[in-house]
Amino acid sequence: QVQLVESGGGLVQPGGSLTLSCAASGFIFTSYTMNWYRQPPGKERELVASINRYGAFTHYADSVRGRFTISRDNIKNTVYLQMNNLKREDTAVYYCNARVSRVDNWGHGTQVTVST
After folding, report:
1. How far is 84 from 39, CA to CA, in rounded Å?
2. Which of 57, 74, 101, 107 could bridge across to 4 with cysteines, CB 3.0–4.6 Å?
3. CA–CA distance from 74 to each of 57, 79, 85, 114 (Å)?
């Protein structure tokens, strides 16, 4: 079965950086676009970034463009989210997502808190 396991979250000061990782298994990783979503406290889940199968095309939410970078390693079956210049409004639970055979699959999420 599809498994997505996120890691790398934590507490960081405004202006700091974090890199999230998502290890994928149970499906042909190179066949699917991978996504990062986030859910801020009290708000709905939102798409943060996407990367296509071979990493040639990426998409970012306006709120993170220029600060976040999504990438993938198709040998390690892992997708990353490099987050720079973090702001308090980036505080959220971050989820890895893969739509496999038209079914959305999610990891358990990793908490990112931006605070002094």
Report:
1. 18
2. 107
3. 14, 8, 27, 30
